[in-house]
Write a structure and sequence with these properties.
Length: 286
C-alpha cells in the first residue's frame, strides 16, 4: 500500500493507471475509520475487481466546517486508519495537507468554489449553510486528482450523496457514483466517527434516532399520514429522551429532495439530533 500526500504524485499515478486501462475505485473519507467506511472500501474493490486500483483519501476538509463547528477536535488516528486499510488491500491512501489542497487560502489566494444551488438548500444545508459548498468543492478537487471511474459514498449522508450525484451529472464528471447502505451498531445507531464524542448516557439515548425512523415506518405502513402531524409526533417522541435536542425531522421525495405534505411508503425521512454539542444525523426510506 502506498501513502501519497502530494497532488502531483497522486495525479501521476492515476494517469499511469488510466493509460494502462486500469479501473480506479475511490472512497473519500475524513478518517477515523469505522466498519461503515470499510464497507465502502469493499464496495469499491468489488466494482473495480482484483485488477483495478482502490484509492482512499483521508482528509479533514476545513471548508465544510463553520467556525463554530468541530474542525479542531474532529477525531483523527492516521496510524490506526492506515493499518485497517492495509489489511483490506487498499492500493493507495491519499493524505494531503491543507496547504496542498488549498494553496494560498489563508492569504486570500484561493477563491473558486463549486455550489449546488437546489438540493443543498434544505435540511443539512439549512442547518449548516456553508457545509455543502465545502463538500462539493473538495469532492470535485479529489475527483480531478484521483481520476476515479467509480466513487463510493455512504447512504447515511443521503443528502450529500444526492448533491454529489447532481454535481457529477451537471458538470459531466466521468465517474460513476455508488451509494452503499448505512451500517449500524447492534442497537441500530448509525455508525459515525462523531459517535466517539458521546458519553455513556448520551450514547444510550442516541439510539432514539433509529427508533424514530422505525416509528415513522410503522406509521405509514398501512396508510399515508399528514407530514406536519407526523413531525409533531416524532418531535415529542425524540425529545422524550432527556438529553436529545431536535434540529430537524423532514419528509421528502428521494429523487428531488422536495418536502412532501403527505408521508407514505416510499417517502424518504431524515433527521438531525443534538446530544450536548454532538450532532448526529440519520435517514431511511419509509
Amino acid at each position: 500500500m502506498q501513502i501519497v500526500s502530494s497532488i502531483a504524485a497522486m495525479q501521476r499515478l492515476a494517469k499511469k493507471w488510466q493509460r494502462a486501462g486500469t479501473r480506479i475505485g475511490f472512497v473519500p473519507t475524513m478518517g477515523y475509520l469505522h466498519a461503515g467506511h470499510l464497507s465502502l472500501v469493499r464496495a469499491a474493490r468489488k466494482r473495480v475487481g482484483t485488477n483495478g486500483k482502490v484509492v482512499v483519501s483521508i482528509y479533514v476538509n476545513p471548508t465544510q466546517f463553520a467556525p463554530t463547528e468541530d474542525l479542531a477536535k474532529y477525531p483523527r488516528d492516521l496510524k490506526r486508519d492506515l493499518k485497517l486499510l492495509r489489511e483490506l488491500g487498499v492500493d493507495v491512501v491519499f493524505t494531503p495537507s491543507d496547504a496542498e489542497m488549498y494553496p494560498g487560502k489563508f492569504e486570500n489566494r484561493f477563491s473558486t468554489y463549486i455550489v449546488e444551488e437546489k438540493l443543498s438548500q434544505m435540511m443539512e444545508g439549512a442547518s449548516r449553510p456553508t457545509h455543502f459548498r465545502g463538500v462539493t468543492t473538495v469532492v470535485a478537487k479529489l475527483f480531478n486528482i484521483v481520476l476515479p471511474d467509480v466513487a463510493v459514498f455512504g447512504q447515511k449522508d443521503f443528502q450529500q450523496a444526492a448533491i454529489i450525484k447532481r454535481m457529477v451529472a451537471d458538470l459531466n464528471f466521468p465517474v460513476k457514483i455508488i451509494v452503499a447502505p448505512t451500517l449500524r451498531e447492534r442497537d441500530g445507531l448509525a455508525m459515525s466517527s462523531r459517535n466517539k464524542y458521546l458519553d455513556p448516557e448520551q450514547r444510550a439515548q442516541a439510539v432514539i434516532l433509529y427508533h424514530a425512523l422505525q416509528a415513522a415506518k410503522a406509521a405509514v405502513k398501512k396508510k399515508s399520514v399528514a407530514g406536519g402531524r407526523l413531525q409533531a409526533d416524532l418531535k415529542e417522541f425524540i425529545t422524550a429522551a432527556p438529553l436529545a435536542r431536535l434540529d430537524y425531522v423532514e419528509f421528502f421525495d428521494p429523487e428531488t429532495l422536495e418536502p412532501v405534505k403527505q408521508v407514505k411508503r416510499g417517502t424518504q425521512m431524515a433527521l438531525a439530533v443534538f446530544f450536548g454539542k454532538t450532532r448526529l444525523i440519520d435517514n431511511a426510506g419509509l
